[in-house]
Amino acid sequence: xxxxxxxGSFDPVTRGHLDIIGRAARVMxxxxxxxxxxxxxxxxxxxxxxxxxLRECTAQWPNVQVExxxxxxxxxxxxxxxxxxxxxxxxxxxxEYEMQIAQTNHIVEPNIDTMFFTTSxxxxxxxxxxxxEVACYGxxxxxxxxxxxxxRMEEKFREKHGGAAR
Length: 166
Ligand code: ADP
What we know:
The protein has about 170 residues and is of the alpha/beta class. The chain is built from 6 helices and 5 strands. Adenosine-5'-diphosphate (ADP) binds next to helix 1 and strand 4.
Protein backbone atom coordinates (compact mmCIF):
# COMPACT_ATOMS: atom_id res chain seq x y z
CA UNK A 1 0.00 0.00 0.00
CA UNK A 2 1.50 3.33 -1.05
CA UNK A 3 0.01 6.27 0.78
CA UNK A 4 0.77 9.90 -0.06
CA UNK A 5 -0.01 13.18 1.59
CA UNK A 6 -0.45 16.32 -0.48
CA UNK A 7 0.04 19.30 1.83
CA GLY A 8 -0.79 22.93 1.09
CA SER A 9 -2.88 25.96 1.95
CA PHE A 10 -5.49 25.41 -0.79
CA ASP A 11 -6.90 28.92 -0.33
CA PRO A 12 -8.84 27.96 -2.42
CA VAL A 13 -8.21 24.75 -4.38
CA THR A 14 -7.52 25.50 -8.08
CA ARG A 15 -7.70 23.40 -11.24
CA GLY A 16 -3.88 23.19 -10.98
CA HIS A 17 -4.13 21.49 -7.57
CA LEU A 18 -6.83 19.15 -8.91
CA ASP A 19 -4.62 18.20 -11.84
CA ILE A 20 -1.90 17.14 -9.38
CA ILE A 21 -4.40 15.34 -7.11
CA GLY A 22 -5.89 13.37 -10.02
CA ARG A 23 -2.48 12.31 -11.25
CA ALA A 24 -1.29 11.35 -7.76
CA ALA A 25 -4.51 9.37 -7.19
CA ARG A 26 -3.75 7.29 -10.29
CA VAL A 27 -0.31 6.17 -9.13
CA MET A 28 -0.84 5.95 -5.36
CA UNK A 29 -3.21 3.67 -3.45
CA UNK A 30 -4.28 6.50 -1.17
CA UNK A 31 -3.85 10.27 -1.27
CA UNK A 32 -4.53 12.33 1.84
CA UNK A 33 -4.79 16.05 1.19
CA UNK A 34 -3.47 18.00 4.19
CA UNK A 35 -4.92 21.48 4.56
CA UNK A 36 -2.59 23.70 6.54
CA UNK A 37 -4.49 25.46 9.31
CA UNK A 38 -1.73 27.61 10.79
CA UNK A 39 -0.26 29.24 7.72
CA UNK A 40 1.66 32.49 8.17
CA UNK A 41 -0.47 33.95 5.39
CA UNK A 42 -3.91 35.31 6.28
CA UNK A 43 -6.28 33.10 4.29
CA UNK A 44 -9.39 34.27 2.45
CA UNK A 45 -11.26 31.10 3.44
CA UNK A 46 -11.45 29.43 6.85
CA UNK A 47 -9.87 26.01 7.10
CA UNK A 48 -13.39 24.46 7.26
CA UNK A 49 -14.39 26.19 4.02
CA UNK A 50 -11.17 25.08 2.31
CA UNK A 51 -11.78 21.47 3.40
CA UNK A 52 -15.42 21.57 2.21
CA UNK A 53 -14.42 22.86 -1.22
CA LEU A 54 -11.72 20.20 -1.55
CA ARG A 55 -14.17 17.45 -0.55
CA GLU A 56 -16.66 18.66 -3.16
CA CYS A 57 -13.97 18.80 -5.86
CA THR A 58 -12.40 15.40 -5.09
CA ALA A 59 -15.58 13.34 -4.62
CA GLN A 60 -14.89 11.52 -7.91
CA TRP A 61 -11.72 9.90 -6.51
CA PRO A 62 -12.57 7.22 -3.91
CA ASN A 63 -8.93 6.94 -2.78
CA VAL A 64 -8.60 10.66 -1.93
CA GLN A 65 -9.43 12.07 1.49
CA VAL A 66 -9.09 15.53 3.00
CA GLU A 67 -7.73 16.32 6.49
CA UNK A 68 -6.41 19.40 8.27
CA UNK A 69 -3.14 19.77 10.08
CA UNK A 70 -0.96 22.34 11.77
CA UNK A 71 2.69 22.26 12.72
CA UNK A 72 5.34 20.43 10.75
CA UNK A 73 4.32 18.66 7.55
CA UNK A 74 6.56 15.69 8.37
CA UNK A 75 4.68 15.23 11.65
CA UNK A 76 1.44 15.09 9.72
CA UNK A 77 3.00 12.59 7.29
CA UNK A 78 4.12 10.39 10.20
CA UNK A 79 0.70 10.58 11.84
CA UNK A 80 -0.98 9.56 8.59
CA UNK A 81 1.61 6.77 8.09
CA UNK A 82 2.43 8.18 4.66
CA UNK A 83 5.34 6.98 2.52
CA UNK A 84 5.44 9.96 0.22
CA UNK A 85 4.72 13.69 0.15
CA UNK A 86 3.36 15.00 -3.12
CA UNK A 87 4.19 18.50 -4.32
CA UNK A 88 3.50 20.27 -7.59
CA UNK A 89 6.14 22.09 -9.62
CA UNK A 90 4.97 24.86 -11.91
CA UNK A 91 7.96 26.80 -13.16
CA UNK A 92 11.62 27.15 -12.24
CA UNK A 93 10.56 29.69 -9.64
CA UNK A 94 8.99 26.89 -7.56
CA UNK A 95 12.07 24.74 -7.86
CA GLU A 96 14.48 26.27 -5.34
CA TYR A 97 11.88 26.66 -2.60
CA GLU A 98 10.53 23.14 -3.11
CA MET A 99 14.05 21.64 -3.12
CA GLN A 100 14.82 23.37 0.16
CA ILE A 101 11.67 22.00 1.80
CA ALA A 102 12.19 18.50 0.38
CA GLN A 103 15.83 18.36 1.56
CA THR A 104 14.89 19.60 5.02
CA ASN A 105 12.02 17.15 5.32
CA HIS A 106 14.27 14.31 4.24
CA ILE A 107 16.74 15.15 7.01
CA VAL A 108 13.98 15.38 9.62
CA GLU A 109 12.26 12.17 8.42
CA PRO A 110 14.40 9.99 6.09
CA ASN A 111 11.60 7.45 5.68
CA ILE A 112 9.35 9.88 3.86
CA ASP A 113 10.18 10.90 0.31
CA THR A 114 8.94 13.83 -1.72
CA MET A 115 7.40 13.10 -5.10
CA PHE A 116 7.12 16.00 -7.56
CA PHE A 117 4.59 16.24 -10.32
CA THR A 118 5.19 18.82 -13.01
CA THR A 119 2.06 20.75 -13.70
CA SER A 120 0.13 20.41 -16.95
CA UNK A 121 1.10 23.29 -19.21
CA UNK A 122 -2.27 25.05 -19.07
CA UNK A 123 -1.94 25.47 -15.29
CA UNK A 124 1.72 26.43 -15.18
CA UNK A 125 0.86 30.07 -14.46
CA UNK A 126 -1.94 29.39 -12.02
CA UNK A 127 -1.93 29.95 -8.27
CA UNK A 128 -4.63 30.49 -5.65
CA UNK A 129 -3.36 34.08 -5.37
CA UNK A 130 -3.92 34.73 -9.09
CA UNK A 131 -7.43 33.21 -8.95
CA UNK A 132 -8.29 35.45 -5.95
CA GLU A 133 -6.91 38.52 -7.69
CA VAL A 134 -9.15 37.91 -10.71
CA ALA A 135 -12.23 37.02 -8.60
CA CYS A 136 -11.75 40.11 -6.44
CA TYR A 137 -12.48 42.30 -9.48
CA GLY A 138 -15.56 40.27 -10.37
CA UNK A 139 -14.02 38.64 -13.46
CA UNK A 140 -14.73 35.12 -14.68
CA UNK A 141 -12.56 32.53 -12.91
CA UNK A 142 -14.01 29.42 -14.55
CA UNK A 143 -10.68 28.50 -16.21
CA UNK A 144 -8.93 28.64 -12.84
CA UNK A 145 -11.33 26.96 -10.41
CA UNK A 146 -14.33 24.59 -10.47
CA UNK A 147 -17.89 26.09 -10.40
CA UNK A 148 -18.47 25.40 -6.67
CA UNK A 149 -15.25 27.26 -5.80
CA UNK A 150 -16.05 30.12 -8.19
CA UNK A 151 -19.44 30.55 -6.49
CA ARG A 152 -17.87 30.64 -3.03
CA MET A 153 -15.25 33.16 -4.13
CA GLU A 154 -17.96 35.37 -5.54
CA GLU A 155 -19.90 35.19 -2.24
CA LYS A 156 -16.78 35.85 -0.20
CA PHE A 157 -15.81 38.96 -2.15
CA ARG A 158 -19.39 40.19 -2.08
CA GLU A 159 -19.31 39.94 1.76
CA LYS A 160 -15.91 41.63 1.87
CA HIS A 161 -17.02 44.49 -0.31
CA GLY A 162 -20.09 44.92 1.86
CA GLY A 163 -22.47 43.92 -0.93
CA ALA A 164 -21.31 46.73 -3.20
CA ALA A 165 -20.25 45.89 -6.73
CA ARG A 166 -16.63 46.69 -7.53
P1 ADP B 1 1.60 26.33 -0.20
O1 ADP B 1 1.06 27.40 0.68
O2 ADP B 1 2.23 25.17 0.49
O3 ADP B 1 2.41 26.83 -1.37
P2 ADP B 1 -0.47 25.84 -2.10
O4 ADP B 1 -1.87 25.47 -1.77
O5 ADP B 1 -0.25 27.15 -2.75
O6 ADP B 1 0.27 25.70 -0.77
O7 ADP B 1 0.20 24.73 -3.00
C1 ADP B 1 0.28 23.37 -2.61
C2 ADP B 1 1.11 22.60 -3.61
O8 ADP B 1 0.47 22.64 -4.89
C3 ADP B 1 2.52 23.13 -3.85
O9 ADP B 1 3.36 22.02 -4.09
C4 ADP B 1 2.38 23.95 -5.10
O10 ADP B 1 3.60 24.04 -5.81
C5 ADP B 1 1.37 23.13 -5.86
N1 ADP B 1 0.62 23.92 -6.84
C6 ADP B 1 -0.01 25.08 -6.65
N2 ADP B 1 -0.59 25.54 -7.79
C7 ADP B 1 -0.30 24.62 -8.73
C8 ADP B 1 -0.55 24.49 -10.14
N3 ADP B 1 -1.21 25.45 -10.80
N4 ADP B 1 -0.09 23.41 -10.78
C9 ADP B 1 0.61 22.47 -10.11
N5 ADP B 1 0.91 22.53 -8.82
C10 ADP B 1 0.48 23.57 -8.14
